[in-house]
Amino acid sequence: MPYKSKEQARAYRLAHAEEKKIYFRDYYLAHRQEQIEYHRNYRDTHREECARLNREYRATHKQELKEYAQAYNSAHKEGLKRTHHQYNLTHKEELAEKHKKKNGALRQQLFNRYGNLCYFCKGTVEPSGFFLHHINGDGNDERGQLGGGTTGLMRSWKEAVEHVDLAKYAISHKACHNRFHKSGVKNCQRR
After folding, report:
1. What is the pTM of this model?
2. What string of pLDDT tens digits covers the 191 residues of the chain?
3. 150-156 contacts: CB < 8 A, separation 24 or more?
């Protein structure tokens, strides 16, 4: 419907804004499933292009996305905490299996990198039962800096796998490792 002036057109839009809003909302709700299917099919048939566009966007808007994520996470901290807790409870076995597999792979990488001989007694160590020994005795400090607890332990293992200097870490039996730390000796002379 053409209007003689911009003011008339603007007045009409303002007067019917609520009706238009309701119309589009109802249309969206009535055709929601169709739209979801359309977008899903599009993403499936154009998977490579969508992935490329996503990578480009993330590369060019890295700082904005980081700031947005930080703002969102701080604003929704409690809700996210509840959601993660609920997810962890409902997917306990699945997560345990995933962590076991991931940690097993990390253990195998450590074992491959540092060999199968105990640092202290030179006995053969099994891949499933070894300790990562910090030769300088700074393991507790390193785990604390990397996050403490299990997180710090896993990060310490990753650090050991990626570390260039092989003289910083060694593999040992649990008993040898405990004996060394209970004796209070900082540098083991048994090697």
Report:
1. 0.50
2. 566 788 888 888 888 889 999 999 999 999 999 999 999 999 999 999 999 999 999 999 999 999 999 999 999 999 999 999 999 999 999 999 998 888 888 888 887 888 888 888 888 888 777 888 888 777 778 777 777 777 777 777 788 888 767 778 888 888 888 877 787 654 444 44
3. 154/103, 154/106, 156/132
